C-alpha cells in the first residue's frame, strides 16, 4: 500500500512550497497535487526528486471537483500521511462593493471544499498522519474590508482545533496555519477590485519560511502555527483587547 500526501492549491504559493518541502523531507511514494492550473503542476511534478507527482486538475469550489479526488482515493486506497488544504482565495473590498458571487465563491472554496476534502480523506489516514489546514492571521479578529475572507478563515481555525481534539483517539494530528501577508499571488487576486491594504506590505514574509515552520510545528503535534513576531503579537492583542476597540482603528472609506 503506497504512502501519499494530498495537497490542494498546489499550483502556487504555500501549496507549491508544501509540495517541494514534503518531497525533500519525507519518504512518500506519491504527492497528489490538486488545483485548476494543470500545466503549472506538471512542471512542478517533473522537478520532484524523491516522490512521484500526481497531477489532478480539479476545481474544488465545485462538488464534482472534490468528488474527482475522493473517487481516486476510493479506487486506489492509499495511506494518506499528509492532507494539506491550501486552496483558497480572498478579496479586498467592503461587503456591499464586492460582487456577491465572488464572495460566495470564497465560502465555497475556503470553507466547503476544505470541509469536504477533510471528511473524504480522513478514512484513509493511519495513526500518525497529519492534517494541515491553511487558515490566516485574519482569523484572529473581524476585518472590515476583508470581511468574508476573515470570517472563512475563522471557521478554518476553529474547525481545525476542534477536529484535532476529535481525532486524537485515532492518532491523527490537526494543525491550523495562521500566516500574515505572504509573498505569493494572493494579493494580486485579492486587490484586483478592492483597495489594497498598503500596511500589509510591511509585514510580507516568504512562503517557504511559513511552510517550514508549519511542518516543524506539525511534527511537534501543535494545534496552531503562527510565523513571525508581528503575527504573534496580533494574536496576543486580539485576545487581550476587546474587538470593538480594535475595530475602531479600522478606516474603510
Automatic annotation (TrEMBL):
GO terms for molecular function: oxidoreductase activity. The keyword Oxidoreductase applies. The keyword Disulfide bond does not apply. Keywords: Oxidoreductase. Pfam families: adh_short (PF00106). Belongs to the short-chain dehydrogenases/reductases (SDR) family. This is SDR family NAD(P)-dependent oxidoreductase. It comes from Defluviitalea raffinosedens.
